[in-house]
UniProtKB/TrEMBL annotation:
One of its GO terms (molecular function) is phosphoribosylglycinamide formyltransferase activity. It holds the Pfam family Formyl_trans_N. It is an enzyme of class 2 (transferase). NCBIfam families: PurN. The keyword Transferase applies. Belongs to the GART family. The gene is purN. It catalyses: N(1)-(5-phospho-beta-D-ribosyl)glycinamide + (6R)-10-formyltetrahydrofolate = N(2)-formyl-N(1)-(5-phospho-beta-D-ribosyl)glycinamide + (6S)-5,6,7,8-tetrahydrofolate + H(+). The keyword Membrane does not apply. The lineage of its organism: Bacteria, Pseudomonadati, Pseudomonadota, Acidithiobacillia, Acidithiobacillales. This is Phosphoribosylglycinamide formyltransferase. Its EC number is 2.1.2.2. (6R)-10-formyltetrahydrofolate binds at residues 67, 109. Catalyzes the transfer of a formyl group from 10-formyltetrahydrofolate to 5-phospho-ribosyl-glycinamide (GAR), producing 5-phospho-ribosyl-N-formylglycinamide (FGAR) and tetrahydrofolate. Residues 3-184 form the Formyl transferase N-terminal domain.
Length: 223
C-alpha cells in the first residue's frame, strides 16, 4: 500500500522539492506526499506543492493565543491525512511535548548542523565564528527537546576559510537534499526505527560510510 507523508513547512520548500522528486523517481518507493501544511501563508513552498497538485493547508500560528492551541489544531489537520510519517521540512516553530509525543517514531526533522553541535538558529554563522573545519546537516527523530533527537543520517561538508554564512548554507543545503530522502526511505521501509529512545537499524546495520556523506579530503592546496 502507498505510504503517506505530511510535510510541515514555513518557507522556501527546497527540501520539500527534493523529497517530492524522490517520491516521483523511486528514491522513496511507494510513497506520496498527502499534504503540505504551512504556518505562513506566504511560504514559497506552498507554490511548489500546488504546482505538483499536492493538497496544501495553512494554519497561521498568530491566530492562536497559545502554543498548545496551535499545536492541537495542527495535529487535527495532520491526522485527517493519516500519515505514516510527519516530516518537518523547514518548519520554524517549536512544538509542544504533547504534539511530539502524539507521533512516537513518526516525526522527523532536518537540522542544518552536525548535531549535537549548533542546535537552534544561525548555525552556519555560528560554525564559521567557532572556526570549525566541518559543518553539515542531520536528519533525526523529533523528541520534546529542541534539535536533540536520535540521529538517523548526517552529512558533513568542509568549512572553507573564505566562507560566509550564505556560501556555507548553500553547501549544506545540497547535502540536505541528498540525506533527507535517504532517511525517509529508511524509516518508511522499516529498516530504521526509533526504539527506546535510540535509532535501531534492522537487517545488517549500515556502517558509518552508509549513513554519512563525507567528501574526500584533498588536503590544503600547495603554496
Ligand atoms: C533547511 O536548511 C533546514 O535544514 C532547516 O530549514 C531550512 C529549510 O529550507 N530546518 P527549505 O525550506 O527546505 O528550502
Amino acid at each position: 500500500m502507498t505510504k503517506k507523508l505530511v510535510l510541515l513547512i514555513s518557507g522556501r520548500g527546497s527540501n520539500l522539492q527534493s523529497i517530492l522528486r524522490a517520491c516521483q523517481t523511486g528514491g522513496i518507493p511507494d510513497t506520496e506526499i498527502a499534504a503540505v501544511i504551512s504556518n505562513r501563508v506566504e511560504a514559497p513552498g506552498l507554490i511548489v506543492a500546488q504546482a505538483a497538485s499536492i493538497p496544501t493547508e495553512v494554519t497561521d500560528h498568530r491566530a492562536f493565543p497559545s502554543r498548545a492551541g496551535f499545536d492541537t489544531a495542527l495535529q487535527q489537520q495532520i491526522d485527517r491525512y493519516a500519515p505514516d510519517l510527519v516530516v518537518l521540512a523547514g518548519f520554524m516553530r517549536q512544538l509542544t511535548d504533547t504534539f511530539v509525543e502524539h507521533y512516537p517514531g513518526r516525526l522527523v526533522n532536518i537540522h542544518p548542523s552536525l548535531l549535537p553541535a549548533f542546535p537552534g538558529l544561525h548555525t552556519h554563522a555560528r560554525a564559521i565564528a567557532q572556526g570549525v573545519c566541518w559543518h553539515g546537516a542531520s536528519v533525526h527523530f523529533v523528541i520534546p527537546e529542541l534539535d536533540a533527537g536520535p540521529v538517523i543520517i548526517q552529512a558533513a561538508v568542509p568549512v572553507h576559510k573564505d566562507d560566509d554564512p550564505a556560501r556555507l548554507a548553500a553547501r549544506v543545503l545540497a547535502a540536505e537534499h541528498e540525506i533527507y530522502p535517504q532517511a525517509l526511505s529508511a524509516v518508511l521501509s522499516g529498516w530504521c526505527s526509533l526504539e527506546e529512545g535510540r535509532v535501531r537499524w534492522s537487517k545488517p546495520a549500515p556502517s558509518c560510510a552508509d549513513t554519512a556523506i563525507n567528501p574526500v579530503f584533498t588536503g590544503p592546496s600547495s603554496p
